[in-house]
Every structure is written in C-alpha cells, then in structure tokens.
Amino acid sequence: MIAIDDLNDWVEPLAGHPQVQTPAIAQLAQRGVTFTNAHCQAPLCNPSRTSIMTGLRPESTGVYGLAPWFRTLPEFEDRVTLQQYFQRHGYRTLIGGKIFHGPYGRGKNSSDECDTWGPNASVGVTPKQKRIPPTPGGNHALMDWGTFPHRDEDKGDWKVASWAVKELEKMPADKPFFLSVGFFLPHVPCYATQKWFDLYPEHELQLPPIVSGDRDDTPLASWYIHWNLPEPRTKWLLENNQLKPLVRAYLASISFVDSQVGRVLDALEASPYADNTIVVLWSDHGYHLGEKAISGKNSLWTRSTRVPLIIAGPRIEGNRKCNQPAELLDIYPTLASLAGLPQPAGVEGMALTPQLNDVSTPRERPAICTHNAGNHSVCDLRWRYIVYADGSEELYDRAEDPNEFNNLLSGETHGPDLREVVERLRKWLPEQDRPLAVGSAHRILEQRPDGFYWEGQRIDPASPPLDDQLIR
Length: 472
What we know:
This protein is of the alpha/beta class. The chain has helices at 23-31, 45-54, 58-61, 82-87, 110-113, 156-169, 194-197, 221-224, 234-239, 243-269, 302-305, 331-338, 353-357, 416-426; strands spanning 2-4, 32-35, 38-39, 92-97, 116-117, 145-146, 177-183, 190-191, 279-283, 288-289, 295-296, 309-312, 320-322, 326-327, 367-370, 376-379, 383-387, 393-397, 445-448, 451-454, 457-458.
C-alpha cells in the first residue's frame, strides 16, 4: 500500500495537469484500474487517514481536525484498523513513513498497531533560510517551496523508499505480508532538487485554471471551513509573484515522489512476490494551487476531494479506468475481498471488486466528503452537491463545468430539474453528524448557538482574516 500526502489529481493517469510527469504511477496504472472519480472522506490529513484505517466516516468518529488520535477516544480504543485486520488473519504488517497522521500510532502500544515500524515521515534536509517571503497566518515554517543545493538521498521520502526496498529484499516467505509505505511530498514545504525543477521550465509552465471572482457565487459559509490558515491565499501568491514558483515546486515534488514510488515498485518486481502481490496507491486528499482564491486543502471542491486511487494485482486486468464514484473508505473492504478474507464487520465502505472485474458496473452510492460537522459534498457520475452547516448550498454540473466555476444554486431562482438533482443527492447526507471528539484541535469549525467558531474563536464575517474578499 503506497500513500502519498497532499497529492491532488496532478498525475498522468488522471491528467489533472497537462505537463505533469509521473512515469512510475503511469506504469502502475497500466497494470491495474485507475478510479477517475475517487474522493477522500475529509480534505485534511488526520480525519482522512483515520477514516481509511478505521473504515469509518468522520461524522461517525467525530475526528474532524488534526487532533485527536482516535485511540484516545474510549469508544475507538480497540477499533481494528486495516493493518490489524490483516495481522489477525496471519499477515506480517509493516508501516513506514506517513500512514497515520504525524506521530500517531508510534507512541505507547505502538507494537499493537503493526509488527514492524519503519522510519518516520519527514521533510529531510532543509535550507538555512526560507525560500519565499514571509507569509500571512504566522509565517508558518512549512509554508515554503523551491530548490537549494541538496541530494535526493537527503530527503525523508528517499529514506522511506530505501527502507521499503530493503524490507522487500529480505521479506521472509513463511507468511504473507502487508507493507504500508507513506510518502510526505508534495506536502509543503515543497523542496526538490534542481533536476526535478528542470522538468518544468518556468517559461513553459502552465498554471491551473484560475478565474477572477470565482468565489462571487459561493456562500459565506464556504469561507468558514478554511477561515484562518497558514496556507497563503491566491491574492498573496499573486502580489508576491509566488503562484508560478509554487506550481513549479509542487510539480517538481510530485515527480520526485513518483521516482520513489518507482523504486519501491521496482523492488517488488525484482522480488519473488511480483506476481502475487496486490498494490494500491492513494492520496489522502487534494490540494489547491490558486483555484477558488486559495492554496492548500480544506475545501469541498474537486481540487481538495479528488484523489488518485489505483489498484493492481493478480487477476486484475490492467490499463482500465473506472469513472464510477469511489471513496477512500472503500480501500479497507476492497483489500480484504481481494485477499480472500472475510468482509470486516462494521466498516462503512463498499468493496470495489465489482468495478475491478468490470469497470462499467454501476455504483449507486455517490462519494461523500466531510469537513467539520455539517459540511458535506456529494459526488455522483455528473454532479457535485455541497451543503454547509448553515444550510447554504452549491451545485456543479461536472460534465459541463469540470472546474466547478458556476454554482448553479447561486441565483434567486433555479429550475425544478436542479431541485430534483439536489433532493436525490441530499438523501445520501448523514442523518446525524457526531459532535467534535474530545481533544479536537487544529482546523476545527464549530457551530454554537451564537454563531460559528474557528479554532475556539468566534467568527466575525465583517472582519475576515488574511485580507479575504468575502460576500457580505
């Protein structure tokens, strides 16, 4: 299992950026099925990874922010994770890099989570000084990108890939294995060596589609879910001539991490297990590079929710794409099914094995993404419906408007056909969202009787942070 942090659809199999170069991921896609309509359950690391590993939606756990670690919650203290499920069915389990968020899982009782822990996720070597001007929101240390003299071997992801390669080379044959490899890039800071930047000459670089005033038809609540963040807004990027450098650094970081994916896949191919090993590759959520007036994640639009999801392995016909809605939540039951294990009890995902057998097999259920209680997007084959905790709504026809520029519900009136679409998609919204889990912190939005609170501070719509231009 290969996880990549903060990677949106800028990979060759998804064609999210016309210039991106990801040959290793493209080769994996040739061997398996690419789910072109796959979405995360939360556009933020901890709730997304908690959902994938526990098989539960954020609204079922109450984990919406970067804290807490779900094991601190009594009702989930003994929850069987994906790795533990395979461990209990005779697999040797190994975790290296970023699989759970941050240090979660590596502290007390870490041996309960898996058999073998590899290196932590890390940036690796960093420059002596930041490469970009001071950013709003506290000039956070992670808000940086660019290149400086260093080697690929100095990077944290190189060390994680090297660990995975060695484990594959010495993997004992006495029992099956579940190897989880988590890469950090293209998470900020986006540092890569010069050779990866050279793949994307600045004078030839294509920027993502950005439309001035794109937020004019989105409700005020769309700002609440990323009210005050260290990730710079597009306005700052433009004023400081950093939009193109950020895009270039993000692309360079993607190509570097793709090379590390290639190292791991080459080691698997050279091992005795090449022909009987399932490979799944995913990203925990997407990332904005200036679209919708922001950079970073923390939105319910396609740039934040659409993710790579590729599955290859024995008896899976290669070079196929499935456009049916899929969720990262589906990974848990899908891997159990492919391995011939009993379906795990109490997971909320649906196995993707019917689509792996025939990519045209319909899936009735759309993909649902949640960012803090009451804020959800619902995606089917054509539409994206968004509802916020205050009841405001958005609707996008993704077939006609793939960049989601035009909110069809922004006008005073709209036809009955659109309301029919909305009502059909609304049926998939959770009946009840679990309140914030005890210990919730960081990027938390809470609705209280007197208004909305961002990270414990009451939101004043008349005084937006970061010089945002809001609808008033």
